[in-house]
Write a structure and sequence with these properties.
Helix content is 20%, strand content 37%. With 460 residues, it is an alpha+beta fold.
Length: 460
């Protein structure tokens, strides 16, 4: 035997392949291998752990290291607590400063909103004065005459013979769509003839869209600021802006400009007489304009920023929705607060019914419509359409209520004979504004992308 030592795995593999001793080259088989057995050696202890004194020394060193680490951690904890205390103090100071600045800002806005508007002017440059005390006798007489004239026949009035029926509404579907008009358009108003629509967008442009020609036939500039609301005053156009202006045009020419609000004007409303305009704004005030003299008739401060505005069909009441969730109803003649209705959030839409007793309202964050009875000062009916609501519009017959939002268009019908509500129409057209066409034979919607969509029936 040569007496060489190999790793078992390697030598067995070599023998299996060659059958010889790798050193002497003699014949070799696995049976000739001799296995070596050796005992496991135990590593000796470190010299420092071979006696009790050395062990005690090691324990002492470990204890010292642990105590030092604990001290270091405690120092870091104290430092972290100090930093946290400083940060909390700075945060508290910042919150106090923000609260103080917010309070001062609100006080400044309120003080500014109380200032008489001396700089408002008409298109011809004449100065306007604001009567903050009361309305003129002539103004009040016009309001009373309009109320007396309109309230006489309101209760006995019946729908015209050619008015749309619920069966016809069932078949309403989109039949026409305009081109995209203005970016971010939210202002939308149809004239009484039903052939022209006012559309305003973010760029401060107000356009007159012809329903027959399907083009913008006239464009007016309300810049600076974006258009926040628009409406027709007979054949004249009016618009409000985010910079606090209210402008009026006749045949495309600006004839009046008012700057009575200290901030954004959020909504406009036209009196049934046609010669009184109202505006509301985030400065918590509403303003009445005498269109016959193109002057500001009065300006009234409320207790909250206002978002929506509507005149009662008879013209003796004015309703304004606030960010505080209140519908504030004012007597137009005395400009006093006649009633307040509480809602669930900032008011996004309102519409008086032509029956003279109902007011439909919608609040931000809600999918429901509340029908208020002005006589009872209470909600008599609620409608849930399962999507946010941006616009409401009663028709002339006081039967149909159009409800529009990004989730689609819904029409609810009230039957006076059965005193029941029904839903003759639900369509997926997303809309930010809605108008009834002549004889309610069509519904016009301004969709979320600035298109005008017309819904009508082909079975009428």
């Amino acid at each position: 035997m040569p007496g060489n030592v190999f790793e078992r795995r390697l030598i067995e593999a070599y023998i299996a392949e060659n059958g010889r001793d790798p050193v002497t080259d003699e014949e070799l088989s696995t049976d000739d291998l001799v296995e070596l057995k050796n005992s496991r050696t135990v590593r000796p202890r470190p010299p420092t752990l071979t006696s009790i004194p050395s062990l005690l020394s090691v324990f002492q060193n470990e204890w010292d290291a642990l105590a030092l680490e604990t001290y270091t951690l405690r120092q870091q904890l104290i430092q972290t607590r100090q930093e946290l205390s400083t940060a909390l103090y700075q945060h508290d100071a910042a919150v106090r400063v923000i609260a103080r600045l917010s309070r001062e800002r609100d006080e400044a806005r309120e003080a500014l909103s109380r200032v008489s508007v001396l700089g408002a002017h008409t298109a011809n440059g004449e100065a306007m004065q604001v009567d903050s005390i009361g309305l003129s006798n002539d103004f009040i007489a016009r309001v009373e005459a309009t109320q007396e004239d309109l309230s006489k026949t309101r209760r006995k009035r019946t729908p015209p013979d050619d008015w749309v029926t619920s069966d016809a509404l069932n078949s309403f579907a989109p039949v026409d769509k305009s081109e995209a008009l203005y970016t971010g358009a939210r202002s939308f108003a149809l004239n009484t003839r039903g052939d022209s629509v006012l559309v305003g967008g973010r760029e401060g442009k107000l356009g007159t869209y012809s329903m027959s020609e399907k083009v913008i036939i006239q464009e007016m500039n309300a810049a600076p600021g974006s258009i926040t609301d628009a409406l027709w005053i007979g054949n004249s156009a009016a618009a409000s802006t985010s910079t606090g202006n209210v402008k009026i045009w006749e045949s495309g020419t600006e004839v009046a400009s008012f700057a009575g609000h200290a901030g954004e004007v959020t909504a406009l409303a036209i009196h049934p007489s046609g010669d009184i305009l109202a505006s509301v704004g985030i400065d918590k005030s509403y303003i009445f304009y005498d269109l016959s003299s193109k002057t500001i008739a009065t300006r009234v401060l409320t207790n909250a920023a206002l978002t929506t505005a509507k005149f009662h069909p008879d013209g003796h009441l004015f309703a304004a929705g606030g960010v505080d969730g209140q519908i504030k109803v004012f007597d137009v003649r005395s400009v006093t607060n006649a009633a307040n209705f509480d809602s669930t959030g900032p008011i996004t839409a309102m519409s008086f019914s032509e029956n003279g007793t109902w007011l439909a309202t919608a609040a931000q964050g809600s999918t429901g419509v509340s029908i208020w009875d002005l006589r009872k000062a209470a909600v008599i009916h609620s409608i849930d359409i399962a999507s946010p609501i941006l616009a409401l519009k009663w028709d002339y017959s006081a039967q149909f209520l159009a409800i529009a939002g990004p989730g689609g268009l819904v029409v609810q019908q009230y039957s006076k004979s059965t005193k029941d509500w029904s839903e003759p129409l639900r369509n997926a057209v997303p809309a930010v504004a809605v108008e009834w066409g002549p004889s309610a034979g069509a519904i016009l919607c301004l969709d979320t992308e600035g298109f005008i969509i017309t819904l009508s029936s082909t079975t009428r």
